[in-house]
Fold each of these.
Amino acid sequence: MAEPVNRALPTAHAALARLRRGECSSEELVRDVLGRIRATDGGIGAYLWVDEEDALGQARAADARRAAGNEGRLLGVPVAVKDVLNVRGQPCTCASRILRGYVAPYDATAVARLRAEGAVFAGRTNMDEFAMGSTTENSAVQVTRNPRDPERVPGGSSGGAAACVAAGEAVVALGTDTGGSIRQPAAFCGCVGLKPSYGRVSRYGLTAFASSLDQIGTLSADVRDAALMLQVMAGADCMDSTCLDAPVPDYGAALRDDLRGMKLGIPREYFVGGLAPEVETPVRAAIEQCRALGAEVAELSLPHTEYAIATYYVIAAAEASANLARFDGVRYGRRARAESDPMTMYCRTRAEGFGAEVKRRVILGTYVLSSGYYDAYYLTAQRVRTLIRRDFEKAFAHCDALLAPVAPSLPWRLGEAADDPLKMYLGDIYTVTANLAGICGMSVPCGSSADGLPVGLQILGPALGEEKVLRVGHAYEASASRPAAGP
């Protein structure tokens, strides 16, 4: 069994500084990443696909570009990509048998913007199939292990992306967050996970799970890297009608080492029964640290939180059933063995191509959208979603950001949640609300349990309030990394 792995690579901003000073080349940096993958990924399983020659070719092109004086904000930095985002010329299987053999013919907008700034795409990371799950055990390809304890899950659905950053197998990674799929694995693996507001980053080129909830974000070693990546990806996109045409602020300028003048709220409903003491203790300590940094901290209420899980799983499943209808064996991906009857081929293709968790959610979604149940379930869930969003609007009228746990427990042992789907669903209680409301959120490491397992502090901000979230995260991160003052 593999031993716990700790990150060894530089952050993106540190790597860029070294590249600009000529202390290393992009090719050398990429070779370090590839060597790390070869040395450690056999015991972790973070990657589904790596093309070393292609990555080195991209690195050499970045070095040539720098030599010609053509800089880019991510020039020469290796980026891992969750296997749900299209990267031209690379497979995009969503960790599913039904898309085996599919190669993306185009770049997602977020990928295209990173490519324009010189990013090097190192490989594809594992995930729960079609992003449906919280452990990365629902992948149809392989299980990913937590680098901090290989007997535990890395979280999901962006578990591969979080694991590769935590293990030093990538400098930064792209993930997606539909109900906590960036923030929860970031908390479980001990890295920073940023979920932007709905509409802040274009979803064009993202294979949709639930279109009104999905958002592309980042996994990184620190908050400054998260700000850098968001700066490049954010902004309007004519290819995505849900992408907002709103000004993109200078996120780097928002990073300060104190919280003076900020008001932070603590939702009572996030500190109730079911929250493990080994999670609550470091989160409470982080809240007190934010108070010490100059923030005004006060409790408040998000009264409709108790309905969030039921609301989320009705809406997400309904949208999943509609989005996954396109995977039918006709145009691309897996097709069942030749059948004379098209309907038999269609049914067999989906039965053989989808895993158990995907089938469960598609069946649930089809049910809640069916005649006689649409009003009782789907429309009711949409009404409750509005109430949840209003809870946040009222809260943010009195504070700049909210502080809370990311997950109610430490990382589960392998198989523990996979054998109990309800336990896995309930583990999303603190994260799904941000997706339902369309607001931004981030997980920042805030300590460890007695066994050395990471715990994450969740920072939630209003829609398009990433500057506030990043400021709080950076100030806390900087204070937590500073040595304690002497007597």
Amino acid sequence: MHTIIPSLSPSNPLAPAESLNGFRQPRFECTDLPQALKLVVLVPGVEAAGVEIVSRGPDLIITARKPHLVRVNWQALHLENVQRDYQLKLRLGLGLDFEELRADLRDGVLSIVVPKRETVSHRLAARQRRVA
């Protein structure tokens, strides 16, 4: 009998990539503000010490790890997916100033604000306004 459930072997191209590396992708919302980009990422069960935000060129990588507790009366209840850590990889471009990034974690909601870089045309327009 054939099965429709793909195995999670690395050789299977149908297997979800997030299952292979032990992370799952959190739900997020991105809002483009006039002076910044705002990300709201849902990471329930994560403490502030477990959040790592890394920028590599135009990419932003957010890794949020849950505290893993081993209980005395532990039983396998197929909770492996629920207990996995979160990782979100976004290509945001080079128009953002990642060095000025601000982040806040409250009640499992990670809020990130990344200011936009000032472009050359904005600088020229500002100079023209100051002269006139």
Amino acid sequence: MKKINYNRELCDFCGTCVSVCPQDAIELSENNLEITDKCTVCMNCVYICPLRALEVKNEG
């Protein structure tokens, strides 16, 4: 199963990923990013992230 994770040390919480998510699966607060179960791993956020803070991981 694939899942999108983010690197807290690279992410500056700019919100670019939130704006391209067609499933509204990314929740952003001042210092936290959460990718919810609504994520379909379309990879839009991975491709658009200017800091390359998002990546796909195989889990399970």
Amino acid sequence: MSTVVIGELLSGALLIVICFVLMAGYPVAFSLAGTSLIIASVGWLFGAFDFAILHGVASRIFGVMNNEVLVAVPLFVFMGMILERSRIAEDLLTTMGQLFGSARGGLGYSVVLVGALLAASTGVVGATVVTMGLISLPAMTRAGYDPKVSTGVICASATLAQIIPPSTVLIFVGDMLQGINQTAQLKRGNFAPEPVSVGDLFAGALIPGLILVGLYALWIFYKTVFQPHTVLALVMSAEEKRSLAVRVVTTLLPPLLLILAVLGSILAGVATPTESASIGAIGAIVLALLKGRFSYEILRTAAYNTTLTTSMIFIILLGASIFSLVFRGLGGEVMVEEFLKDMPGGVFGAMMLVMAIMFVLGFFLDTFEIIFIMLPICGVPLLVMGLDPIWLGVMIGINLQTSFLTPPFGFTLFYMRNIAPASIPTTAIWRGVVPFVVLQVVGLALVWHYEELATWLPNLIFRDDIATVIQNAPPPPPMDGPEVDPGDPPPG
């Protein structure tokens, strides 16, 4: 048996063994690195792997440490932690609920809108689910909401943190797609590829994220028309009604301006994602100070939790780097590329297969684990087949968001089960999210069919202006020497 065949068999075995090890509950980062090194040793014994390829681990670690874009991750996480610990997010939910809650279905609309705002400020699904669930679920229960509706809309709105920028998931996807797209374009013979940035992906995800927000709101509207008993209006006291206008200005406006400053500075090209993340972190501290809720304990807790979250993400990234190098050294990348090219249906079939695998992995693995494993393996082959990198990144985000919500293994459902009272059965939570899973599949299908939903805005903001500058540029000055009439025959 040739070493090429042995390498392909071992690369397939590597994927299978890692899936079993991860589902057994072992730490992800060490499972990826340790299993990969064991399989690499077996490949080396059979002459199918050269350990020299692991020399690239040091450069990858150094590259991660020097990557300014990735500095945005801890800053955005810190921003969300400050907003949560200082109870600014709680005030946002409460005030928005009272603003819309007097109308039938108003609490549902407020949860959707606040979910989108918190997604733009935290970027972490788990934190958003817990925050919204602890505050909104009791209020919706007191208002007489059907538990299926209340738990479903909270879970679905929380998953918006996966796709609405500035999502930490999109930061890593965008950063990885830069190198993946460059490699793919070189394989296609394009030696001057259009660069892909995190800002491109943020802009590309904005419209699909807003489409999902609109679909959720339409479902609440459907409930108000055809099942009004499931979405009752919130009863407010006279004092709450009198002070509502002031609280709307003082509670909703500052966080909204902060989010607009963070996201707007990126989309306007004024600041990089890292610079805008620093604006968000400082802005969150300023808001907490203005509210009189900032203290050393809040700062310490936010910094500690940010360190834990960031360390977990980056150690997984380093373990995934060893995995991808071993997988490539065994010839797995070539095997996957040939396999996807031979899929029935061409690029459609290949994309469908990758999306299906990621969807199933979303039941068992965290988002970061999936993208660190799957993107290096499948990203280059898919882009070589002609897919747009921004569209691919947005599709991955929506797909994993849907996977996080799908019963019975969706991560969001476990978060909700932990904070929901025992009076709400698990089956009610599952049944409540099913309509939103369908809506997310509709949103995924729309972005799949209308690629411009993900590519139009980044092209408008970051590319069309460059094309306009080139088009409107003055003609080059005439070259020295005698003028040559275009109709004259060439000299000689």
